[in-house]
Amino acid sequence: MANWKPLDQMTYLGKRYPRLDGPGKVSGATKYTFDLTLPGMLHAAILSSPHPAAEIKSIDASAAQALPGVKAVLTDIHPTGTVRYVGEEVAAVAATTIAIAHEALELIKVEYEVLPFACDIETAMQENAARVFSEQPNIREPRKDGKGDIAAGFAQAAVTIEGDYRTQVQVHACLETHGSIAQWEGDMLTVWDSTQSINPVREAIAKFLNIPQTNVRVICDYMGGGFGSKLQAGRYSAIAARLAKAANAPVKLMLTRSQDLMIAGNRPNALVHVKAGATSEGKVIAFSTKSYGTAGVAPNARIRLPIVYEDIPNVSTEHYDVFTNAGEARAFRAPGCPQASFVMEQVMDELAEKLNMDPLAFRLKNDSNKTRQMQWKLGAEKFGWNKRAPKANADAGPIKRGMGLGAAIWWPGGRGTQAQMTILPDGGIEVRCGTQDIGTGTRTIVAAVAAEELGVPITAVKALIGDTNYPYSGGSGGSTTAPSVAPAIKNTAEKAKEKLLALAAQHFGVTTNEVTLANGKAIVNADAKKALSWKQLCALLGATPIMVNGEWVEGLSSAGVAGCQFAEVEVDTETGRVTVLRMLVVQDCGLVLDRLTAESQANGGVIQGLSYALFEERLMDRVTGAHLNARFENYKIAGALEMPKIEVILTDQPERGVIGIGEPVKVPTAAAIANAVYHATGKRMREIPMTPDRVLAALNS
Amino acid sequence: MQERENNSPQQRGEQEAALLPPKLSRRNFLKVTGGGALSTALLGAAATPPNAEPIAPAESFKGFNKIQLNINGQMRAVEVEPRTTLLSALRYNLEVTGPKEVCDRGECGACTVLMNGKPVLACMTLACDAIGKEILTVEGLVKDGKLDPVQQAFVEKDALMCGFCTPGFVMSVRALLNQNPNPSEAEVRKAVSGNLCRCGTYPRVFEAALAAAKSAAERRS
């Protein structure tokens, strides 16, 4: 099996180095899909449904068509003719300017037959609720799971707790809205897409348009955030392609900010009734939940309970997905997990308190993961957990402080990825891989892994990614990118290296084992004076470059990580405002590829988790079915003034190879903050976001 | 935060809410009534902070007009309507795409540019109101192919991930350091409090701003 060399022999991996695309991004030179202009390009806009449920009776687009500057109008973009949420795509226009396109939308007359609807989970669960899909009830068949004997488990429990928890719908809110540019050249379609998944998008577009995949090329050089919502193709890509065909010109179609928040994905909510019991020795012995969640018109609102503490012998879970007239959920950074953690970690704290045990000591008894055992202790020491008041609500004044914690977990690892390396006679190095950089630094680690293997500076490697013309890699989701891509690049570079070593060996008249590539040179091991510079070495190629293909191989990556987070908060009991003062992240991610960008990922997970805990909530209007806060003005995401001090400790396990870090760092943040709020106030926050009104209500309960 | 010249989102939002009949969008309103001078006349009294320069007395105009804008030290001709925002003119007419279109309503700061040295939101500024002003975008900070110290610090501290919010943060920090070369972290936070980031780069933006200030101080001494 393949192996990484030891960390102390590495030049880049495990170290800190800035990302290669930094200069372009800070200077405005980087072009995202939203920024690109093609010659003769038109601008398109989508007409959204104002109704949460309606049948499209007729669409009259004649006035729009007649508006000067309008080049194409589509009135048949809805797949069924029955819209099921506000914002859904009804018609589309391409025009010479974006202003004209939006003006044209206002001229389209749509006749709807408005239908009854249920846009929020409570309404949809009522017995006589309007059905989202006429052919099936809103509440779907439950998924039941479990083990052991739940009744016997509770019978053995010395203490039990029971309660209801609730999490909200969170919207991805990527800064670059979803969108595409489509250009036809004959029957060949090129799509520039703001995506996490060039290859799956290519497949989907071909399917949408009923054309061969060989006729579709998808490019994504840079994209402005996805967090899971850009893992799949949107209707906008196919609409852009159809408009481009109709107008015989390239078309750019970016969702508006409001459309993006309404229709381009979200994290499902969860209503969870939970009961749990523990023995007098402090072991959780029984855990049962009944939960509901809505993924809008999509089916999967799964919540992953129990989470982390999976040795519990007696478990019973029952989960119901509920359809609502709302935009569909999409994968969102650790799907099903932050909401599960919010419940699970508070249940753990509740049980610990009933047993009069410290929350950390209780976790050490129930967490069988060896890495996390080490991390809990390390984190507690760094954080000063021993300074935590043993009882909740210990501060006398109106502003109270508290500490809390939660555990991080994630599973997926690497998978099939292919790559190609070209070494040119002038010394140029190109690596091609059909992956994409979603802001995590993939382009940089592609270059770093290649540079590490070849013994050249990272800047000598041209990393070419984000194009379906390059060798295949999958979508960037589920923290799979680094463990998928890094092994493939290493494998490819190894093959190029073999050829270079053979070239050097032949030149010096020695065997390949007797030469080494290091510091941009080929050196004869026995005689350092016998050396070729990189340029001299590559010049030996003559006219023919080296071109090799490699792929993902076993042994260089792993799946499954552990971590934990600690939070300290301040609660103003007069205003209800929660301020997170500091967060400590202790996280394993195997072999750290770039410490600088890995820490940035951890910061990002914590900040999204904090934002989820305190600010964000999609609000649906029961009267009109509208998404009330589909703007950044009132869909609140955490800003500079809300930032705590964040400390990140990466507990390296290089022997395990590469593991992704994007998902796990978001999982426990909201839970740790909620536990800290309880510790500060003695009031359990059973619902997020913990907005001042909810905190005050809890304080007054 | 520095004064956002005539452009505070809150101010603008309130004025519009008060002035517009319910069915008219902001842009159509401006299209119907004409551009800079008229909108200034209507909004001016409440919107203009006492220390702001008077808006150039442009004539009211309708339809497309060719105007000259000073972008990063170059006079650029651009055809705009009265309703065209500075952001729209930059991005769609001039292909200056450093300033990002994210919310288009002054909520996120991604389109922040400097107008006569002060940070403004390009999406909340009409192109015709930028006539006669010096507009500096993130592209204009690069001198002879060399990054500005703020940009350099952003790269070194990894104060960017997807990078879509980054130009706005860079400009807010640049504006702060122009005014206050030695800010505290609290002052940095305040200066970028109008900029939203979804990847979570804030802590490193603070680090980068302080590092850029420090390196500038070292160069001065």
Q: Which key terms come to mind for this protein?
A:
heterodimer, A: 701 residues, alpha+beta, 7-stranded mixed β-sheet, 17 helices, globular, B: 221 residues, 5-stranded mixed β-sheet
Structure, described:
The complex is a heterodimer of chains A (701) and B (221). Chain A has 701 residues and is of the alpha+beta class. Helices cover 28% and strands 26% of the residues of chain A. Chain A has 17 helices and 28 strands. In chain A, helix 9 (337-354) runs parallel beside helix 16 (669-681), helix 12 packs parallel to helix 13 and helix 15 packs across helix 16. The longest helix of chain A has 28 residues, at 481-508. Chain A is globular. Chain B contains 8 helices and 5 strands, in the order αααββαβββαααα. A 5-stranded mixed sheet of chain B has the order 2-1-5-3-4, sandwiched between helices. Classes of the chains: A alpha+beta (701), B alpha+beta (221). At the A-B interface, helix 1 and helix 15 of A face helix 4, helix 5, helix 6, helix 7 and helix 8 of B.
Summarize the structure.
The complex is a heterodimer of chains A (701) and B (221). Chain A is 28% helix and 26% strand.
Please describe the topology of this protein.
The complex is a heterodimer of chains A (701) and B (221).
Chain A: H1 22-27, E1 42-48, E2 54-60, H2 62-66, E3 70-74, E4 82-83, E5 89-95, H3 98-107, E6 109-114, H4 121-125, E7 143-147, H5 150-156, E8 159-167, E9 170-171, E10 179-185, E11 188-193, H6 198-209, E12 216-219, H7 235-247, E13 251-254, H8 257-263, E14 266-267, E15 270-278, E16 284-294, E17 314-322, H9 337-354, H10 359-366, H11 370-383, E18 399-410, E19 418-423, E20 429-433, H12 442-454, E21 461-465, H13 481-508, E22 515-518, E23 521-524, E24 527-533, H14 534-539, E25 546-551, E26 561-572, E27 577-587, H15 595-614, E28 645-650, H16 669-681, H17 692-699
Chain B: H1 9-19, H2 26-33, H3 36-47, E1 65-71, E2 74-80, H4 86-93, E3 112-115, E4 118-121, E5 134-136, H5 149-157, H6 166-179, H7 185-191, H8 202-220
Parallel strand pairs in B: 1-5
Antiparallel strand pairs in B: 1-2, 3-4, 3-5
